[in-house]
Write a structure and sequence with these properties.
366 residues, 9 helices, 23 strands, globular
Amino acid sequence: MQADMKFNQCVQQQALENSNNKVWKWHIQDPASQRLTWNKPPKSVLVVKKIQDASLLQPFKELCVFLTEKNMIVYVESKVLADTAIAGDESFGAVIQKFCTFREDLDDISNRVDFIICLGGDGTLLYASSLFQESVPPVMAFHLGSLGFLTPFKFDTYQSQVTQIIEGNTAIILRSRLRVRVVKKGIIMTNGDSEGSRKSMQYQVLNEVVVDRGPSSYLSNVDLFLDGHLITTVQGDGVIVSTPTGSTAYAVAAGASMIHPNVPAIMITPICPHSLSFRPIVVPAGVELKIMLSRDARNTAWVSFDGRKRQEICHGDSITITTSCFPVPSICFRDPVNDWFESLSQCLHWNVRKKQNYLSSEEEEF
């Protein structure tokens, strides 16, 4: 990236020595103290807009005009400019000429962009994350979608908010991702003979990896390994392996707890398990999980990554999951703690109920 960034570490280990022995002490840093600072002013920005949403056309144009007036290099996807409402707007033509365009899965812009602005909902942020398979620039997400759990900024005051980001010194939260490796067993032909081959694919996942039974009427039957040890066999509709960020998505709908994104963890949640005692569990970040079809499974399984790239998993295939070294730096509206609880309250209506009426002393006697 053209502008370097510095992030404070979340946890530091300090050794305190005395006359007899060495004492180890853990220092846990306040998440609110995590800040984004620029070593030099940012020069380029990627604007990610939800495709085929007419309500975002005007905000997109206003934002791009504002960014070009600030002499920022603006990157947009080629398919965004394919929208006739944008390409056919003559008054916007001068701005379009200044855009730098790219194509998903074809052009690498990882070293060209200083930060990202998302216009849309949570799905837009997930999509922006998928564009970067290694280091991700800081992401500023505007709430212009249906849910907005991951998009804390309102567009009404975008000019002052974007200016503040460009100037730096804003609160930030590092949202961990999962590094997923899928190895598929296949058959190739060499000189007329069949040989076994293995095709490997890798993904960076912000929310969750979902393994399910697909269109089959039979139970999903997959083995779950942790650091090489078989810990259980999942029998049910499937299993969800999620980040703390993804704990408030599909996982919570399947009965899991909600985990703050600053907690270093991986959550394993069964989907409709055929066992009343199979409850969601949380394991430490960094462990290696492996999912394979059980030897006696009646059917194949299907896997998806943040709801995308859905594919079939057969006998002999494997899915390996661990914590990625490349988190998503998400810019906060206020700070990581307040933003998260605000999202719980406003988007999920967490613990919202009508309060119990106060009883006077006379009423208590009856």
